[in-house]
Design goal:
Radius of gyration of chain A: 16 Å
Order of helices and strands of chain A: EHEHEHEHEHHH
Number of strands of chain A: 5
CATH architecture of the largest domain in chain A: 3-Layer(aba) Sandwich
Number of helices of chain B: 12
Strand order of the largest sheet of chain A: 2-1-3-4-5
Number of helices of chain A: 7
CATH superfamily of the domain at 419-576 in chain B: Histidine kinase-like ATPase, C-terminal domain
Number of strands of chain B: 16
CATH topology of the domain at 419-576 in chain B: Heat Shock Protein 90
CATH class of the largest domain in chain A: Alpha Beta
Strand content of chain A: 5-15%
Distance between the termini of chain A: 32 Å
CATH topology of the largest domain in chain A: Rossmann fold
CATH class of the domain at 419-576 in chain B: Alpha Beta
Strand order of the largest sheet of chain B: 2-1-5-4-3
Distance between the termini of chain B: 44 Å
Largest sheet of chain A: 5 strands, parallel
Low-confidence stretches of chain A: none
Shape of chain B: rod-shaped
Oligomer: heterodimer
Structural class of chain A: alpha/beta
Strand content of chain B: 15-25%
Mean pLDDT of chain B: 84
Order of helices and strands of chain B: HHHHEEHEEEHEEEEHHEHEEHEEHHEE
Radius of gyration of chain B: 58 Å
Shape of chain A: globular
Largest interface: A-B, 19 and 23 residues
CATH architecture of the domain at 419-576 in chain B: 2-Layer Sandwich
């Protein structure tokens, strides 16, 4: 599991990285939106924990770009500026979760793991559809998390049969 | 009184607490007075003036017409009478010229002349010749007057002096009313005799009694002493003194107004008839003549009064309606103005709170992580001596951070709900959220707060932010009204199938009955001078109305106040 932490609060994000490491989640850390995009282009993490208010590129723009270029990457927003509008916008851009600072580290761990699980299932579902020759559905699932939910349920139904 | 109370418009007792240079603009009672008085004056003054002018002109015209008609009647009648007498005098003159003295002294001739006169001219009773000594030398007629001597009588003296004479009506030797016409016959060598004829009174009286007159009219002759010469309907018998004054001499017809002894106004037309002692009088009763005018006048006045009444009703009704509309519009304006002001204020406070909360969240997160890291390290390291001593303060730091986080989230929660957004809300949660803000104050002042909201109270569709404001206002008000150690009770229950009601009751100072009906008015405050704006309850009222609810208040001075809000379970879809 590759996890990337993006936050301009260096003290915060380093400590968080440290603590996550203690809980078995190894993380890379970058300090602004541009660095995050550069990192993604090179390494393609499974989960990104993303701050919103950052210099250079705003977190929401990072999310917007990722939803286009890397729909597989699951993004957990962690911000001190959580408003209802932002939460709704993030949801529209297929963010996995939206958390407010300060957050309990155990909660964050749980969400990161959840996001990773989700991504894995989604990939499996897409692969299953691709194997079954339904490439269009597989593509849609790969792009769209909402589609995945319905696809995932279909998948489960098929398992029961 | 109760009717007056019921129709009294809303603005009547309005007292605006705003003072300032434009205060008069909002004195609605004064606006009402000005509107009503000005409109009444503008409408009624011309109406009344026109009516009065019309009244006077019409009355004057009618009076003039009456006087004119009377004058014409008098002139015509005078002409008739003059003609009657002139005709008879001319007949005598003709006889006097056509006959010699000797012929006239012949009784047969005189009798035949009388017969001719009766047939030809008419109106003659007898005919006589009187010598200038006064002796009646020849006589033709029904009375035996031959040999009577007139030398001492006034008429004889006058005829001898002037040559022609027309007498008053008198009784004379024959003891019946009659009229005498006499002319003197002059011979070249001196006066010879007087030709004298008495005239038929019946024919003479007919001239007057046949007149047709309106207005209980009366036409008669009097002589210069005021004695009646012909019969009168209303003013006495023949030879009696007439009950009217003898009018002063005038060469032409005159008409005057006069009031008789009983105050009845009379129209008197008169004419001195030339060469006779007679004055022709035509007397009419003004009241009777004016009667048609009086009837019209009543209609005119009635119409005027009805018009004035209708105009006044319309002005009063219209003025009151308009001023009331202005008043209501103004009230709405004031309400909206202050609602806007208030929500602006709330929005600013909200933005500020949100900004602060956000700024605090970042350092808070760092504290959280650092403390968490220490805790993590401690728990990883086995056998650390002072582990317990360190864990305690760290847990305390983490708990404080969590508490701060809760506070910032709550602040954000308040700031977040400035716009109307209808959602399903739980009243208990909202009340508790508001109380969380105030629990420190309650604690310091030892105010006991009891909340009795049943767990099965249905969630309602409403606006969370507005409900928070409503409860914050009400609970703040309650706190302000209470002494320390007071008791605040918040209870809720369902009202029928579609409503819930929440009551906020305090045991504070209460509200006097007079103030009770005004507490929802903007700017009504008993806290003036101590920081009250007088807006809280008016805004609360507006907010409750916006949510489709109702607010009511019960209070008793010294015992406390309770506000009850009734809210609908579901919001009706408003057209936007």
């Amino acid at each position: 599991m590759k996890v990337l932490l993006v936050d301009d609060e260096i003290e915060f994000v380093n400590t968080l990285s440290n603590r996550l490491g203690m809980r078995g989640i190894s993380t890379d850390v970058v300090y602004d939106g541009q660095q995050a995009l550069d990192y993604v282009a090179e390494h393609e993490p499974d989960v990104i924990v993303l701050d919103l208010e950052m210099p250079k590129v705003h977190g929401m723009d990072v999310l917007r770009q990722l939803s286009k270029t890397h729909p597989d990457i699951q993004v957990v927003i962690l911000t001190a500026y959580g408003t209802e509008e932002r939460e709704k916008e993030a949801e529209k851009l297929n963010a996995f979760d939206f958390l407010n600072k300060p957050v309990d580290v155990e909660t964050l761990v749980e969400r990161i793991r959840g996001a990773y699980r989700f991504k894995a299932e989604k990939t499996m579902a897409a692969a299953a559809f691709a194997e079954a020759g339904e490439f269009d559905t597989a593509k849609e699932i790969a792009k769209d998390a909402k589609r995945f939910k319905t696809a995932g349920e279909m998948f489960k139904d098929e398992d029961k049969k | 009184m109760s009717i007056l109370k019921r129709i009294k418009p809303a603005f009547w007792d309005h007292q605006d607490l705003i003072s300032g240079p434009h205060k008069a603009l909002f004195n609605f009672r004064r606006i009402w007075y000005a509107t009503v008085l000005l409109t009444s004056a503008v409408v009624l003054l011309p109406l009344i003036t026109m009516a009065v002018i019309d009244y006077k002109v019409t009355q004057h015209n009618i009076e003039s017409a009456i006087l004119l008609r009377t004058a014409r009647l008098v002139s015509n009648t005078q002409r008739t009478i003059s003609f009657f007498l002139d005709e008879r005098r001319a007949a005598l003159r003709f006889i006097e010229q056509d006959n010699t003295c000797e012929e006239l002294k012949d009784p047969e001739r005189l009798t035949s002349l009388l017969e001719h006169l009766k047939k030809g001219v008419g109106g003659f009773v007898d005919l006589g010749i009187i010598e200038f000594s006064g002796l009646h030398v020849n006589y033709a007629g029904p009375y035996n007057l031959q040999g009577v001597n007139y030398s001492r009588q006034q008429w004889f003296k006058e005829v001898m002096e002037r040559g022609v004479y027309t007498s008053d009506v008198f009784l004379g030797f024959r003891r019946t009313p009659h009229l005498v016409v006499a002319i003197r016959h002059d011979l070249p060598e001196g006066p010879c005799y007087v030709l004298r004829a008495s005239l038929d009174m019946e024919k003479f009286n007919d001239l007057l009694s046949n007149l047709e007159m309106a207005g209980r009219g009366d036409a008669f002759l009097i002589n210069r002493e005021g004695l009646l010469q012909t019969p009168s309907l209303y003013h006495g018998k023949v030879f009696e003194k007439v009950s009217l004054p003898v009018p002063e001499y005038a060469p032409r017809t005159r008409v005057l107004e006069w009031k008789n002894a009983s105050g009845l106004p009379l129209i008197i037309g008169y004419r001195y008839i030339a060469d006779t002692p007679f004055i022709l009088m035509v007397v009419k009763q003004k009241e009777v003549l004016m009667k048609p005018w009086y009837e019209t006048r009543i209609e005119l006045i009635g119409f005027l009064l009805a018009s004035i009444t209708i105009v006044l009703i319309v002005i009063l009704g219209g003025g009151t309606y308009l001023v009331n509309r202005i008043y209501l519009a103004d009230q709405r304006r004031v309400m909206i103005l202050h609602e806007v002001e208030y929500s602006n204020k709330m929005a600013s406070i909200g933005r500020l709170a949100a900004g602060v909360a956000h700024e605090i969240n970042n350092p808070l997160a760092i504290i959280n992580e650092k403390a968490g890291l220490i805790k993590d390290l401690l728990s990883l390291k086995e056998g650390f001596a002072d582990k317990e001593q360190l864990l305690d303060p760290i847990n305390s730091i983490l708990a404080s951070v969590e508490r701060c986080g809760r506070i910032t989230r709550r602040l954000l929660g308040f700031a977040r709900h400035m716009d109307v957004s209808i959602q399903t809300v739980n009243l208990g949660d909202i009340v508790q959220g508001v109380l969380d803000f105030l629990d420190k104050e309650a604690e310091y002042r030892s105010i006991a707060v009891s909340v009795d909201i049943p767990g099965d109270l249905p969630a309602i569709e409403s606006d969370r932010g507005k409900l928070q404001q409503i409860f914050l206002n009400l609970i703040n008000n309650a706190f302000a009204a209470m002494e320390d150690n007071g008791h605040l009770a918040i209870t809720a229950k369902t009202e029928g199938r579609d409503f819930v009601s929440i009551t906020v009751a305090d045991d504070g100072c209460g509200i006097p009955e007079n103030d009770l009906k005004r507490i929802f008015e903007p700017f009504f405050s008993t806290k003036i001078g101590s920081g009250g704006t007088g807006l809280g309850l008016s805004i609360t009222y507006g907010l409750v109305q916006e949510l489709g609810g109702k607010i009511s208040v019960q209070s008793e001075v010294g015992k406390g106040t309770s506000f009850t809000i009734t809210l609908p379970l579901k919001q009706e879809q408003k057209e936007r």
